[in-house]
Structure formats: structure tokens, C-alpha cells
User: Fold these one by one.
Assistant:
Number 1:
Amino acid sequence: QVQLVESGGGLVQPGGSLRLSCAASGGTFSIYKMGWFRQAPGKEREFVASCSRGGGDTYYADSVKGRFAISRDNAKNMVFLQMNSLKPEDTAVYYCAADRVTVVLGTPNYWGQGTQVTVSS
């Protein structure tokens, strides 16, 4: 069973960048597909990005495509979310998630505690 811990959130101005990190422990990291989700106040949690076990295949929500990039380092048991050109509507708690089968179709089995991202001037 894998444990996930996110970091890297914070306050950033519109147009700025942040890089979120997610450290995994307690399992064989490379067997998990990884993803990022977010939940804004008063809204449902939504999918942001996912990557395959090797990191070669990625998938993004339309709202972040071209601005965000997901990557992973299996040697360090880490997954990252590079967020560029941030907008106020990107403000949310961001969650790292893992699943052996899919993080896109259905609810992933493993979740981190979340990290707050606030985009505001």
C-alpha cells in the first residue's frame, strides 16, 4: 500500500508558476499510474493530469492543457506537476493520487492529503 505526500503549494500571482511534488512510500512506485486532482471551494473534485507507469503517456484536462505538465521520477518515487501561466480559477487544493489500474476511469485507491494553491494578485 502506497502513501502519498504532496508539497510545493502556495500563493502565486496570476501568470506565475508553481511546481508541485508528490513523494510516494510504502510500495513499489513504478507499478502505479499517477495523477493529480484538485478541488476548489464549493466545487467537486476534478481531474487535472495523469501519467503512465513509465511516465511516457500523459493526459490532461482541457482546462490545463498547454499550461500544466505532469512528470515522474521512478528512481526517486516522485511525481510532479509543473504549473505555468496560472489563473485565479486554478486556485484549489491539489491532490496526488495513485492506482494500479487507472487514475482516469474511476476513483484512484490512494490519495495524498492535498496542498493548497492560491492564485491571486
Note: The mean pLDDT is 96.
Number 2:
Amino acid sequence: QVQLVESGGGSVQPGWSLRVSCAASGFTCSIYSMTWVRQAPGKDLEWVSSIDSRGGSTVYADSVKGRFTISRDNAKNTLYLKMNSLRPEDTALYSCARGGRSVRPDAYSLRGQGTQVTVSS
């Protein structure tokens, strides 16, 4: 079964760090660029970061640049997002998607169900 399953979300205080993971199955993840998107309550889906198939090129939204790091382990078919210096405005459902950066974050043909990240004091 082709799917993406996220894990690692939770509730943290502002300034803390968290790493979320995305396990791919049913397809060869290593030949695809991969992406993280997020959706805050009452807001549109937002593109966060993308990484190329080999992990050599990464791009970030301005809102997370310098705080978040995307990475991947192709041997494990797993994508990661390390989030540092978390802010309340980072509170969202974080999902991974198959494909590179898109102006239509809602248009990915394969996207996981997401893992909730809540940042609150």
C-alpha cells in the first residue's frame, strides 16, 4: 500500500525543539523530492520545506528559515523535519507529501494524514 505516515508531534513550550518523521511505504521514496506542509486551525495549507531526492538541496518558507531543518534517510524511506525555537504560530498539523515545492500545497497526489504540533506556554 502506497502511503506516508507521520509521527513525532506533540505539545511543547515556546522555544523548545521537536522532530517529526514521515515513513514512506509502497514506493521507492529515494527517487522523489519530498515536502513538508502544515495547516493551522482556520488557515490554508502552507508549504514549509522541500528536499530533493538525494538530500543535497533544500528550500524553506521564510517563516521557518533558520529554525527548521529538513532531512531524509533514503535507506530507511524516512523524511524528517527538525524544528527549533518553536513559536506559538508554528502550531499546526504537519504533513509530508511526495513531490517538490509547489505553489499549490493542496495539490500533492500523495500526502499523509499528519501529526499535530502544538506550541503553547
Note: The mean pLDDT is 96.
Number 3:
Amino acid sequence: QVQLVESGGGLVQAGGSLRLSCAASGRTFGSYDVGWFRQAPGKEREFVASMNWLGPITNYADSAKGRFSISRDNAKNTLYLQMDSLKPEDTAVYYCVAGRLVGRDATTWRYWGQGTQVTVSS
């Protein structure tokens, strides 16, 4: 079992930065692939970024490439999402996820956090 708790969301102006954190419980966190999804009002959840359990392989949505960076610290059981050059269209609830044999489809991820709101003003 893995429990995930996000933090770091908030209100930021366009062009600004935020770093989201996800604290995980469970001794096996390091053996899971991890990632971030987001959901804007009236829209489906969409994939943002992921990282495999070993750490070196990352995957980004086109909307996140070049602006967002995913990282993990297995010793601290923590996942991060650094978001730079934020745009109003990045406004959404951001979810931390963990799982095995995962993909960009939200249904492939087993564990979800409760989400943290990110609002980017123009």
C-alpha cells in the first residue's frame, strides 16, 4: 500500500514557478513508477509527467515539455514537480500517482493523492 499527499499548490501569476511535492508512505515506494496528472474544471484528467522506479527515465506530455521537470528522492519517499513558465491553461488540480506497468492512461495508475490546486492568473 502507498499513501500519497501532495503539497505546494497555490496561486501564481503567468510566467511564474511552483514546485509541487508529494510525500509517500510505504516502504516499497522506491519500487513504483511515479507521476503527475492534472484535471481542469470540466475536463478529463490528463497525463503531465512520469518517472520510472529507477529514476532515469522520464516522460512528459507535450504541454509540459521544456517547462516542467519531474524528480524523486526515494530516500525521502518524495516526488516533485517543478513547474516553470506557468500559463493560465496550466490551472488545474494536480494529482500525484504511483503504480506499476503504467502508461499515460489514468486507469493504469493504482495509487492517487487527494490533489492540490494550482491556479495561474493572467
Note: The mean pLDDT is 94.
